[in-house]
Amino acid sequence: MNLLKVGLIGVGGIAEGRHIPAIQNLAEKAVITGVSDINVHRAEQIAEKYDIPSVYENYHEMLPHIDAVIISTPNKFHSEIAVAALQAGVHVLCEKPMALSTEECDRMIQASKESGKILSIAYHYRFMKNAQAAKKVMLEGEIGEPLVIRTQGLRRRKVPGWGVFTNKELQGGGSLIDYGCHLLDLSIWLMGNPVPVEVMGSQYNLLSRTPDQVNLWGEFDYKTFEVDDHVTGYIRFENGASLLLETSWSANIKDDVENVSISGEKGGLDVFPFHLNQAKHGMLLNSEASFIPGDENPGNPQAENFVDCCLGLAEQVVKPEEARMVSMLIEAIYKSSLTGSSVKLDYRKEVESQ
């Protein structure tokens, strides 16, 4: 079997910390042959450090020489680069969020359909051991139909003080589009991708715009802070289920919180840590898993699924249409916050028109 030739566009922390090691762990299936970054010196350093043969200042020059690409650029450029790669006949794994708008997502999906190439989005929380265990429990009907989902991704004082995370033009938002999107995607996937019909949301950034910051993840300028650091949302679905979302980089809470809790008609579960809660045999039962199989690093199964999909050996765990729904909901939460009103969605009509 010929090795899948993989390139990387954007070689910042996520590329070096997750994607490069994960692909290099698949040496029997794939090889990284090139990198491209607007910071050419950084690209050259990464290439030398990880024994990658080619560096490209312009990513377009790399596309004819690779089979697949991993995009780890600021969010603003996701759609543009992904469409160019797909049109060049290259499979794409794009970092989350998929894009800054549903219109950009639609262009990516259309390019994938026209080229026949894989388009996947790096929502790696789906590949976490606990998430895989929860999905299995859901598919086997252990808790029945989901009724209420509580989704929390709360950090007490962890505004990313590096990169462009607080640049609204390049990123499109803050805590929701960067961090909350992972838990939102995971929640909807575990629910079985129900159709959303109405969204309400509120966003805040007062804490990050005050002087004398105490922040555990580096320094940032509170005077120029322009994105959200705390967001709440309420999503109502066509099947009657509802989802309560809260996410933050900065919030006056005791400890960080990360969990998806699902209450169903027959039982409930919590993902982090994994618990199964049921009423059976006249008792209230709470079950914990003493062992959950899988890789401790979700980047590894994510990379393997992408490579196997490119080679025709597997089915995508993260489909682009599902990632588009997450972007649509993020868009609606921000819109609701700005208008002070709920946002009604006609998701079925949108899908039919694509």
Automatic annotation (TrEMBL):
<dbReference type="Pfam" id="PF01408">
    <property type="entry name" value="GFO_IDH_MocA"/>
</dbReference>
<dbReference type="InterPro" id="IPR036291">
    <property type="entry name" value="NAD(P)-bd_dom_sf"/>
</dbReference>
<feature type="domain" description="Gfo/Idh/MocA-like oxidoreductase N-terminal">
    <location>
        <begin position="4"/>
        <end position="123"/>
    </location>
</feature>
<dbReference type="InterPro" id="IPR052515">
    <property type="entry name" value="Gfo/Idh/MocA_Oxidoreductase"/>
</dbReference>
<protein>
    <submittedName>
        <fullName>Gfo/Idh/MocA family oxidoreductase</fullName>
    </submittedName>
</protein>
<dbReference type="InterPro" id="IPR000683">
    <property type="entry name" value="Gfo/Idh/MocA-like_OxRdtase_N"/>
</dbReference>
<dbReference type="Pfam" id="PF22725">
    <property type="entry name" value="GFO_IDH_MocA_C3"/>
</dbReference>
<dbReference type="InterPro" id="IPR055170">
    <property type="entry name" value="GFO_IDH_MocA-like_dom"/>
</dbReference>
<feature type="domain" description="GFO/IDH/MocA-like oxidoreductase">
    <location>
        <begin position="132"/>
        <end position="269"/>
    </location>
</feature>
<dbReference type="GO" id="GO:0000166">
    <property type="term" value="F:nucleotide binding"/>
</dbReference>
